Please model this.
Amino acid sequence: MLSLSAHVALRDFNLDVALEVGNECLAIAGPSGAGKSTILRACAGLVRPERGRVVCDGETWFDADTRVWVEPEDRACGFVFQDYALFPHMTAWQNVAYGMRAVPRADRRRAAEGLLERFGVAAADAHPPSLSGGERQRVALARALATSPRVLLLDEPLAALDARTRAAAARELGTALREAAVPALLVTHDFSDAAQLGDEVAVVDRGRVLQQGKAGELAAAPATSFIADFTGASVLTGEAGPAEGGLTRLHLDGGGQIFSTDRATGRTGASVFPWEVTVEAPGSPPRGSAQNSLAATVASITPVGNRVRLGLVTPQPLVAEVTEAAVAGLSLMPGSHVEARWKATATRLVPM
Model:
């Protein structure tokens, strides 16, 4: 169990967080400059908070009140930095083997090469300057695991990988995190990475944890419009009030109205995920029980795997994800006029 509380004065705001994680991965997600990396550095002892406490498996690494301080090299943290921090004069396998103090010297190369192979690095004898950014990132991942750490700290571990290697590396990292069976803190600005790799996700902005829970819980019931937008939902703003049938009506800024089964009054945001939104020809009768309908103009058409993401211009920006067949059937192109429709039950109301 890792328990961390920290208050750190940063340039534009104060970091003030309290986190606990068992033998699982907590993904710390948020925009750049939110204070995420400082949390990792406080855990590793690279930043000394003004107030707070860091405890790992009952051992106190830092306590501001009792003036306990364990040096970084004695904290047994496996740290993957954004800039990799590899030794340029060592080969890839030597970098990985460097922390294998518990492995007999004669066995270190074989063990290091096994870890590198696991992460898809074939150039075990290459030096870091000759490796691609993605390869250096994977060497850093292997090195962090090679030390048999008590805590894993990963700062944007997939950021340098291209689309082809990213998916495979994410799968391997997820497996490695589960097998390591130690507390892990993983920082990312990408909610999809957080959802894939984190057993739980803590969304951080300006030094505060805004919401923590399972990724699906955050996406389905975001606590704020910021979190709704961060998790990938469109957020429409307006004034909320009661409507017939126990629904809430939201009069949208810029015109139009939508309905939700959530309750709210006053200034409110409404979040809806792209896959909940369908598009139909203007004036066509609604299919099913969709109670929300907005006239829209197609602004962009972007293939995403076997789906197509449509950027829509309504009184406020809206995104829909539809099938290729739907795009072809409606002969959609930028400038096409459509009706965007979705259910009241798919509309989450969030405070502004």
